[in-house]
Amino acid sequence: MLTRRLFMGTAGAGLLLSGSLARAAVKTNPFTLGVASGAPRPDSVILWTRLAPDPLQGGGMPLGDVTVSYRVWEDAERRKLLREGTVTAPQADAHSVHLKLEGLRPGREYWYAFTVGDFESPLGRTRTSSPSSNKVRLALASCQSWQSGFYAAYTDMASWTPDCVIHVGDYIYEGGIGTLGNRSVEKPGETLIFRTVRQHNSAEITTLWDYRNRYALYKTDPALQAAHAAAPWLVTMDDHEVDNNWAANVPQDPWAQTPLEFKVRKLAAFKAWYEHMPVERPPQIDGIEASLDMTGIFRFGAAQVHLLDTRQFRDDQVCGNGFPGQTPCDSLADPKRSVLGAAQEQWLAQSLRSSPARYNVLASQMWLSPYRFNDAPAEPAVNMDAWDGYPAARQRMIDLLGDGISNPVALSGDWHCAAAMTLHASPFDAKSKPVAHEFAGTSISSDCGWMHEMDKMRSANPHVQHLNTRQRGYCRFEVSDKSWLTTYRVVNNSYDPNSSVTTDTEVKLGDL
Ligand code: FE
Ligand code: CA
What we know:
Elements: H1 2-25, E1 35-38, E2 45-50, E3 66-73, E4 81-89, E5 96-101, E6 109-116, E7 119-120, E8 124-127, E9 136-141, H2 152-160, E10 164-167, E11 181-187, E12 190-196, H3 208-219, H4 222-230, E13 233-235, H5 259-276, E14 284-286, E15 289-291, E16 296-300, E17 303-307, H6 342-353, E18 359-363, H7 391-401, E19 408-412, E20 418-424, E21 434-440, H8 451-456, E22 464-468, E23 473-479, E24 484-491, E25 501-509
Parallel strand pairs: 9-10, 10-13, 17-18, 18-19, 19-21
Antiparallel strand pairs: 1-2, 2-5, 3-4, 3-6, 6-7, 6-8, 9-23, 11-12, 14-15, 16-17, 20-21, 20-22, 23-24, 24-25
Helix pairs in contact: 2-4, 3-5
């Protein structure tokens, strides 16, 4: 009895001690990574932060879970307090917070902040979605290589305060430390100059420790923090959140990492992605098998957004690594090859067929529209990592979209070029029936090393209405019951964090 009481007493004291230690040890600001919100529903939104007083060295938090206080206001001046409470930042999730705020009203703005001890986070603004909004403002972002440029695009995006930001991947890049300064690349008749403006914090990332520190590095950027604090985000990862051009369980370089090593790496990447994103669902982890559900359906006024996953379930790329265009081979046409996987294909078809929305948006990583790097009538040489590398799967998608789906609009990233395109029933025949529109955002900061080849082959791709391979930026969409307006915003000097950002072009959508 005595022994047991002693034991319990000790355990209790131990718990108290770890709690007071946790408080005592947070002596410097833990809110170095800002705040974020995401997954906006008519009645809920996810609020996010991560406690990391030493962000590039694992976070620097003491052992143990930490209680974080939050407050939510109905006004930016913090006069009308709506709610306050506490939420746990689990040590197992790198002291990140994912708070699902429920019972909200549709189409409304809210402001929020977290506190730990004497420290208060920056103030965040978020907004619930609403199916009945009659004017919706969405932004599209992708590809934010830390080393290749600064994030002036995000400063501009934050000042626009969209209803929601859709990020379609390459939030981080997994590569090692580049060499600062300019490098030139010779192309026929043109010298391209690229610059490394700032450096990664480690060699190529492979472990949970590495991925956490890499996310933290990116999230220390003030412009990225401002864009997260300005609006809720929808996020779906592409390849560089794990490994360049990975497909399901196949890495870019299967000769350099065993299947077991790649699985462990993917688990680390998925876990760290969740810890840093304002998303609804953590990865499912079973032994060393990890999977993520990044898909979702979100309704913003006349637009129903389908957030897709084009990485986790795809078949491996075929035919070789010719870049940017690879000539086709026999296995390209294999009807069994898939991008979305059977379950996601079925889910999407069902949702599109029953959608009451005027605009049906497919937000995903890679270009749905074709782009050929040779002249007809030869078989098109294409980027095998995009939908071009999966022609049978794309044709299934085209047949679905062309079968009475109201105004399909694809939003994509990955390719670091801005493009407005029409997807035709027969993709390489611009005279065939138009089926969907596509707006490819350029990159926030990543280089477009293949801009010379893209520009050179423009005339072989008559379905492309607008193409800008030379500037970084993002897209704005203003959607009402009657109209869709896309504005391409471009960064005038992506090597300057304070660069001006201006409108390159506007595209108004007609009915198909
Ligand atoms: Fe990219
Ligand atoms: Ca990519």
